[in-house]
Design brief:
Length: 75
C-alpha cells in the first residue's frame, strides 16, 4: 500500500509541474496579447493623426485654390 501511495504522490507532482508550466505559458500568451493590444492602440492613434493631418492638408489646398482664384481674377 505504501508503494502505491508513493507512486500516486509522484504522479501528482508530475501533474502539478505540468499545470504550472501551462499556467506560465498562459501568462506568457496573455502578456503577448496585451502587447498586441497596446500596438493596436498605437496604430489606431497614428491612423487617427494621419487622418487629421490629411484634413488639414486638404483645407490648406482648398485655401490655396481660393487664393489662386483671387489672384487669377486680378491678373
Amino acid at each position: 500500500m505504501k508503494v502505491w501511495v508513493w507512486e500516486l504522490v509522484r504522479e501528482l507532482v508530475k501533474v502539478w509541474e505540468l499545470v504550472r508550466e501551462v499556467v506560465w505559458e498562459l501568462v506568457s500568451v496573455w502578456e503577448s496579447v496585451w502587447e498586441l493590444v497596446k500596438v493596436w492602440e498605437l496604430v489606431r492613434e497614428v491612423v487617427w493623426e494621419l487622418v487629421s493631418v490629411w484634413e488639414l492638408v486638404w483645407e490648406l489646398v482648398w485655401e490655396l485654390v481660393k487664393v489662386w482664384e483671387v489672384v487669377w481674377v486680378w491678373v
